[in-house]
Amino acid sequence: MKYSRLTKEQFEELHKEFVNFLATQSITAEEWSKIKKSQPEVAEQELDVFSDLVWEGVLNKAMYLEHISAKQMHLFSLRESDMHVVAVTIKSDINLTTKEGFQWLRENLMHDDVEFLQATKRYSEDKNLDKFKLIQQGAVITKGELYHFFDKLIN
């Protein structure tokens, strides 16, 4: 498996898509039940293949990622051949993951305790795996509003 297996909740959300996936392999609901009972390792493989297909589709469409921690915000624009990151670092006792901390940042963008950095990094041979690793580290897929705001602010 290239990425990670979908959660039970994700599989439930994608039930129709999973049924269609099985159908493309000529596996009926009855056959699927038999496979789960008599060949659990084959069932596990099918779940993994489907998970990878879903992840591949999601990662192909992802255009922005955000990773916000107590002292830093990393805002990624996922471009065709590279990713651009705008990083915001807070050097004071402010926690960006709280409502109050984020409000403080909004009101104090030019404070000496706020530092902005930006960088561009080319993807490795597997662009989607690069994106997935960021998600595993806590980044979430977004529409890019924060990225655009801060990119415009510092450029």
Automatic annotation (TrEMBL):
Pfam families xref list: DUF6495 (PF20105)
Q: Which domain of life is it from?
A: Bacteria
Name the record gives this protein? DUF6495 family protein
UniProt organism field: Gilvirhabdus luticola
